[in-house]
Amino acid sequence: MTAIKETSTIQENKKIAAELCPVTFTMDKIGGYWKPIIIYHLSTDCKRYSELKKCIPAITEKMLIQSLKQLEADGLILREARPVVPPFVIYRLSPAGVGLFPVIQAMANWALENQ
Amino acid sequence: MTAIKETSTIQENKKIAAELCPVTFTMDKIGGYWKPIIIYHLSTDCKRYSELKKCIPAITEKMLIQSLKQLEADGLILREARPVVPPFVIYRLSPAGVGLFPVIQAMANWALENQ
DNA sequence: GGAAGTACTTACCCTATAGTAAGTGTACTG
DNA sequence: CAGTACACTTACTATAGGGTAAGTACTTCC
């Protein structure tokens, strides 16, 4: 998952920027190609890992997991696993994740006007 | 300015994603650390290059120019240069740039609620 | 005449993000 | 008993984005 080196200028800047600038803070959470797409697919209803994979065929397993872990760590989605075999894992949006809807909406609107 | 290699999977994906997904399209335009900050500083009034530099002390000249060029290429800001010595260049938001305001607003709101 | 201001440009390095590909363990199914 | 499904994990590679540092051409000010 490519560990983050903590003593890097870029990480320092990110932290400072995220603290000072609410927009950067939000960008940090939902930036990247896949995160908004995943959020979108979880918006209608909760989904299993394998369902997400089917919904987003272009994503690789690595990126899917990586994005899910980050979203979970940032508190935007909730992971619920049942300790059975075969594994059963469900992902759903947290309240904070649901709160992103106006943001996504605003972005989509702007894109449709300016595309 | 780090040239973009056109024959890369990542660029292909970006293009496809931006076409299919309005959110990714928007993200592409205003993603990165500095772009939202620059847009914010241009929101109140138009500014000269040197004024922007003063307003955003942490940014390097390279990143400032780079971001400005990209924003200009994407039609979000307008550059007006007067051919005098010393050079006189003014940047202002384009109508499309102004249209980003609801987006920025939504992101800021979410951040303030969830920070 | 050296410094400072103007708006850039150039060269090089480092790292996070993304992509490719293969492996893990358990259990059900044909 | 080989194959498939499930949810991951691991190792490697490539590249775009960001950072550091220095240089450019011209003119005004002290």
Layout: helices, strands, pairs:
Two copies of one chain form a homodimer.
Chain A: H1 9-20, H2 22-30, H3 34-44, E1 47-48, H4 49-55, H5 61-73, E2 77-82, E3 88-93, H6 95-98, H7 101-114
Antiparallel strand pairs in A: 1-3, 2-3
Helix pairs in contact in A: 1-2
Chain B binds a DNA duplex (30 and 30 nucleotides) through α1, α4 and α5.
Protein name (chains A, B): HxlR family transcriptional regulator
GO molecular function (chains A, B): DNA binding
Keywords (chains A, B): DNA-binding, Transcription, Transcription regulation
Give an account of the 3D structure.
By secondary structure, chain A is an alpha+beta fold. The first copy, chain A, has a single domain, classed as Arc Repressor Mutant, subunit A. In chain A, 61% of the residues lie in helices and 12% in strands. Chain A has helices spanning 9-20, 22-30, 34-44, 49-55, 61-73, 95-98, 101-114, and strands at 47-48, 77-82, 88-93. Chain A is globular and about 45 Å long. The termini of chain A are far apart. Chain B binds a DNA duplex (30 and 30 nucleotides) through helix 1, helix 4 and helix 5.
